[in-house]
Specification:
The chain is an alpha/beta fold and about 280 residues long. The protein has 9 helices and 8 strands. About 35% of the residues lie in helices and about 15% in strands. Helix 8 links the parallel strand 7 and strand 8. Bound molecules: manganese (II) ion.
C-alpha cells in the first residue's frame, strides 16, 4: 500500500493563519524524508520512506483558488479509489470537506471527527455563508455518518446535534467516563467498511496545543488522542486529516513538535502493519 500526503494551505472563510500550518508541515515532511534518505543505519523509517508520496497545493492564482474544491475532490477520489492511505493536511477545517464529500459516495464510510467545535453553527452571530465553523451544513452531496468526540459545545441542544452527527461524545463525557466513551467509539466505528479520522487540532487542550485560532479550555490531552486513535485503528482506516494548525500562535514550536511526532507515528502505525 502506498501513502499519499496532501497539503492544502487554504485558509479563506475562517482561521486565517492556518495556511502557514500546512506549508510548515509540508516542509517538515520534506526534511524528515531527506533525513531518512541520508541515514545509512537501519531505522523504523524504512517501513514508510519508499511508500510515501506527497503533493502540495499552491494558491498563487485566482484560478487556483476558484477551483480548489474540484481539484481537492479529484485528488481525494483517486487516492481513495486506488486504496492509497491518505494523509490530508489543511489549512482550515473547511479543507476537509472535499474528502468528506468523496467518502459520502459510499454507504460504508464513517468519519470519526475530533474537534472542540461541532462545525454546524447557525447561531445569530454566525455567518450564513459557508465557513470553517458551519461547513457541515453546506455539503453539496451526502456526507458520511460522523461520530464526533471531544467537543466543548455549550450552545447546541441535543436534538440539533443529533441531526448532524450519528453520535457525539463531548469532552465532558470523555473526562467523566473515558472507558465507556472509548467502548462506544469502538462500537460505532468497528463495523464501518471505511473509516476516516478527522482531527481538528483544537480538540486538544490549549495547554498542550496553543497553535489554534479557536482555542477552548477542557480539551483532550495528547495521550487521550493516542488512546482514541489506537482504540479505533484497524485495516479499515482509509486516512487521517489534520487541520487548523496556526503556527503564528505557537509557543516555542510546541504544537509543531507534537504534530511532527504524530505524523511520524501515523506513518509507522500504518506502514509497519504492512511489513
Ligand atoms: Mn474546531
Amino acid at each position: 500500500m502506498s501513502i499519499l500526503a496532501v497539503f492544502i494551505p487554504f485558509d479563506l472563510f475562517g482561521s486565517s493563519g492556518t495556511a502557514a500550518g500546512a506549508e510548515l508541515l509540508a516542509d517538515a515532511l520534506r526534511e524528515m524524508q531527506n533525513d531518512n534518505r541520508a541515514e545509512r543505519r537501519a531505522t523504523r523509517a524504512r517501513s514508510y520512506q519508499h511508500r510515501l508520496r506527497s503533493r502540495e497545493f499552491t494558491f498563487e492564482t485566482l484560478d487556483d483558488v476558484n477551483h480548489w474544491e474540484k481539484t481537492a475532490r479529484e485528488v481525494a477520489r483517486k487516492a481513495l479509489d486506488q486504496r492509497q492511505f491518505l494523509l490530508w493536511f489543511g489549512g482550515n477545517h473547511l479543507t476537509v470537506l472535499p474528502v468528506l464529500e468523496e467518502l459520502g459516495r459510499s454507504d460504508a464510510s464513517v468519519c470519526l471527527q475530533l474537534d472542540a467545535h461541532l462545525d454546524v453553527y447557525h447561531l445569530s452571530g454566525c455567518t450564513r455563508e459557508r465557513s470553517h465553523g458551519n461547513f457541515l451544513r453546506h455539503s453539496r452531496g451526502r456526507l458520511p455518518d460522523i461520530i464526533h468526540v471531544g467537543h466543548r459545545d455549550l450552545f447546541l441542544p441535543p436534538r440539533e446535534i443529533a441531526r448532524h452527527f450519528r453520535r457525539a461524545i463531548s469532552a465532558v463525557d470523555w473526562a467523566v467516563k473515558p472507558s465507556e466513551a472509548l467502548e462506544s467509539l469502538q462500537r460505532e466505528t468497528n463495523s464501518a467498511g471505511r473509516l476516516w479520522i478527522d482531527i481538528d487540532c483544537d480538540v486538544l487542550d490549549p495547554a498542550f496545543f496553543p497553535a489554534v485560532e479557536g482555542p477552548l479550555p477542557f480539551g483532550l490531552s495528547p495521550p487521550d488522542l493516542l488512546q482514541i486513535l489506537d482504540g479505533v485503528w484497524g485495516r479499515h482506516v482509509a486516512g487521517v486529516s489534520i487541520s487548523e494548525f496556526s503556527p503564528g500562535r505557537d509557543r516555542t514550536d510546541q504544537s509543531l513538535g507534537l504534530l511532527i511526532w504524530l505524523l511520524e507515528w501515523l506513518l509507522l502505525r500504518q506502514s509497519e502493519a504492512l511489513t
